[in-house]
Amino acid sequence: MSWNAYTDSLTGTGKIDKAAIYSVAGDSLWAESGAFQIAPQEITAIAGGYNDPSQLQAHGLHVEGQKYFLLRADERSIYGKQEDTGIVAVKTKQAILIAHYPSGVQAPEATTVVEKLADYLISLGY
């Protein structure tokens, strides 16, 4: 299976302009589309935020050096917003899907796309 097919499917919706898939621990990049450059400390913070969102709540969600206002952080989903763009990160059993949506896309449109892919991967055991 090519993980890039999943990131490409996210960007192919027109709702997501950059996407990546990491291992659930955040220590291994499995796929990336749209030149998404997430720093190691940023993915580590996201991975840790599923169990303890306090650091994200205190310091914000950082991706590609940009700070996003944290909208949601629970054991499955982390959402952030910066002006009219945002980040959607969804955890499955074995992976973390991270997607960026551009200006002109509404947050619910982007979150639905990423959450549905996460549900699909979970149904496959991932």
Please provide a written account of the structure.
β6 and β7 (95-101) form a beta hairpin. The chain has one domain (4-123): 2-Layer Sandwich (Beta-Lactamase). It has four helices and seven strands, in the order αββααβββββα. By secondary structure, the protein is α+β, with helices and mostly antiparallel strands. Strands 2-1-7-6-5-4-3 form a seven-stranded antiparallel beta sheet, sandwiched between helices. Keywords: Actin-binding, Cytoplasm, Cytoskeleton. This is Profilin. InterPro entries: PFN, PFN_euk, PFN_sf, Profilin_CS. Its main location: cytoplasm.
Structural class: alpha+beta
Mean pLDDT: 96
The rough form would be described as: globular
Individual helix count: 4
Strand order in the largest sheet? 2-1-7-6-5-4-3
* Beginning-to-end CA distance, first to last residue: 12 Å
Strand content: 25-35%
Question: Helix coverage percent of residues?
Answer: 25-40%
Number of domains: 1
Subcellular location: Cytoplasm, Cytoskeleton
Organism: Australozyma saopauloensis
Subunit structure: Occurs in many kinds of cells as a complex with monomeric actin in a 1:1 ratio.
GO cellular component, one term: cytoskeleton
Which terms would index this structure?
126 residues, alpha+beta, Beta-Lactamase, globular, cytoskeleton, Profilin, PFN_euk, cytoplasm, Profilin_CS
Topology of helices and strands:
Layout: H1 4-11, E1 18-23, E2 29-33, H2 40-49, H3 54-59, E3 61-63, E4 66-73, E5 77-82, E6 85-91, E7 95-101, H4 107-123
Antiparallel strand pairs: 1-2, 1-7, 3-4, 4-5, 5-6, 6-7
